[in-house]
Amino acid sequence: MLESDNPRQEGTKVMMKLLVEPVPGRDETYFEVLKEIQGGLESDVSGVMTEEQHAGWESSDVNLFGVDTGYSPLMEHFKTAMQNN
Questions:
Q1: Average pLDDT in the 41-56 region?
Q2: Contact between 28 and 35 (Cβ < 8 Å)
Q3: Could you tell me which of 45, 63, 24 has the C-alpha nearest to residue 33?
Q4: Which residues make beta-bridge pairs with 22?
Q5: Is the Cβ–Cβ distance between 11 and 21 less than 8 Å?
Q6: Which of 14, 29, 36, 70 has its Cα between 20 and 30 A from that of 23?
Q7: What is the 8-class DSSP label of residue 23?
Q8: Is the Cβ–Cβ distance between 53 and 60 less than 8 Å?
Q9: 41 pLDDT exceeds 70?
């Protein structure tokens, strides 16, 4: 993407690949595998908390996979698609 003339377009291609292409040797897409990992991680984290800690954590709506870079190629793709319709 860094060497591309259009890194946003390349980023969108990567995001779409993650949503629809299966992981080699598996029946699940990359996205499905990531959601499975996320669910296990959330279960592991909540398993070491008290009920009070867990309630506070749940109410904070923490996304353990969330990385906020200020740019989402997937959202850019959806916005462009909606504008073109």
A1: 84
A2: no
A3: 24
A4: 29
A5: no
A6: 70
A7: P
A8: no
A9: yes
Listed by start position, the domains of the chain span 7-84
Out of 26-30, 42-46, 56-60, 63-67, which region has the weakest mean confidence (pLDDT)? Answer: 63-67
The span from the first CA to the last CA of the chain, in angstroms, equals 27
The mean of the pLDDT values for the chain is 79
- Angle at which helices 7-20 and 30-46 cross, to 10°: 80
The residues, ordered by sequence, that sit 6+ positions from 68 with a Cβ below 8 Å of its Cβ are none
Whole-structure pTM value: 0.50
Contact predicate 14/27, CB 8 Å: no
Cβ of 12: how many Cβ atoms within 10 Å? 20
Residue 8: closest CA among 69, 85, 70, 76: 76
